[in-house]
Amino acid sequence: MSDARALPPGPLIAFYGDDFTGSSAAMEVLAFAGLETILFLAPPTQERLARFAHYRAIGVAGVARSRPPEWMDEHLPPVFEQLAGIGAPVVHYKVCSTFDSAPHIGNIGRAAEIARRRFPGWIPLVVSDPGMGRFQAFGNLFAHANGVGYRLDRHPTMAAHPTTPMHEADLGRHLAAQTDLRVGLVDFASMKRGRADALLAQEIERGAAIVSVDVLDPETLREAGRLIWERGAAQQFVLGSQGVEQALVAHWRAAGLMPLTSASVGCARVERLAAVSGSVSPITAAQIEHACARGFEP
User: Fold this and answer.
1) pLDDT at 123 over 90
2) Would you identify the CATH topology of the domain 13-268?
């Protein structure tokens, strides 16, 4: 994709989040890594975009997660065209780390089909983010809840989600209900044995359009980032959670392309702070209770 000796100038990642919360998660990873990041709440005009052309990451927070495939057919092509025009080597369609999606709403498979018209070639799928308690093994996604790990189809929240319940933890099988695109897999065992490149080539040769990549730990996280960065196209489209940004940052640091640590990010003391939440997750409820117990007023 690029010179392995240095990161290219200008934007490195252009991303579209299928909801606001997920978009801010991707932004958080990049900003905390020391990369200047801007997040727009709607597709920006070219004039406004030009003001931030020197930023290293440019994102757009969208609403595709709550929209049907017909909406995606209309709205995603111009978004992908704009992201491509930014010129970043990675274009990321950001989805939730619990892969919230269904054939009728938030269809990730349809998003991949639309993207392939603009970005030909294989599509990496990186959903796991160990730092968030998300782990993928042999294509199956696991997530923590209250400190306990669950396979996603047995997760107390996601298995009973009112809109997009997860009845299948194997992401390839889950996607098969949303698209005819073939889904391959680079599993963690092969990654740890140094066979990731060979297995990726094999899956692509077999006709895989989307290749799911396991991530369990720092080693597989770095390897996932390397596959995206070194085995992708000049402009590589990627599906996944903020784990995509985590993986790329981990690889860039391991390869000596950016500092191992970033300058600390902090906020000055203020007299008043407002927080808004649109989530009904039990985890969010616990966070609200924690805030209220420490002086926030609901």
Assistant:
1) yes
2) Rossmann fold (3.40.50)
